[in-house]
């Protein structure tokens, strides 16, 4: 299992995912010029997800022979699982584990960072096996 993460492909996945996250963050600021925060967050998430899909298809999983339609469907499903993982880990850490450990500073930041990091690994495997097989 470790061999999946000790590869050039995983490094490129991290880089393209980081760029897509920056597009998500930056586009929220732009969208917020014309819409309220809630709508801007949703539009930015969709913009980041499209960016991540295109970059993954072009640079990470370029050997994939699946149709774009099939890849896009699986890409959305894998990202749906990642959102649930992020939420569960963030909530579990923020409301249970970190308080139990006596952590009182930066609890939301620590919890959310861990919640965001964990799905990087499961998403990579999901995209490799399903989205861009």
UniProtKB/TrEMBL annotation:
Source species of the chain: Zoogloea oryzae
A Pfam cross-reference name: GtrA_DPMS_TM
Residue ranges constituting the GtrA/DPMS transmembrane domain according to the UniProt record: 13-132
Family per similarity comment: Belongs to the GtrA family.
Transmembrane region(s): 12-31, 37-60, 72-98, 110-127
Cross-referenced InterPro entries: GtrA_CellWall_Glycosyl, GtrA_DPMS_TM
Keywords on record: Membrane, Transmembrane, Transmembrane helix
Name of protein: GtrA/DPMS transmembrane domain-containing protein
Predominant location category: membrane
Membrane topology label: Multi-pass membrane protein
Domain of life, source organism: Bacteria
Subcellular location: Membrane
């Amino acid at each position: 299992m470790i061999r999946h993460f000790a590869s050039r492909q995983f490094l490129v996945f991290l880089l393209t995912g980081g760029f897509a996250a920056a597009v998500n963050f930056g586009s929220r600021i732009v969208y917020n010029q014309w819409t309220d925060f809630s709508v801007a967050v949703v539009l930015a998430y969709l913009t980041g997800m499209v960016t991540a899909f295109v970059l993954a298809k072009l640079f990470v999983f370029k050997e994939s022979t699946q149709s774009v339609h099939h890849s896009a469907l699986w890409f959305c499903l894998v990202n749906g699982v990642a959102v649930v993982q992020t939420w569960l880990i963030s909530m579990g850490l923020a409301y249970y584990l970190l308080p139990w450990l006596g952590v009182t500073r930066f609890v939301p930041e620590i919890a959310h960072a861990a919640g965001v990091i964990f799905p990087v690994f499961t998403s990579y495997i999901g995209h490799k096996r399903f989205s861009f097989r």
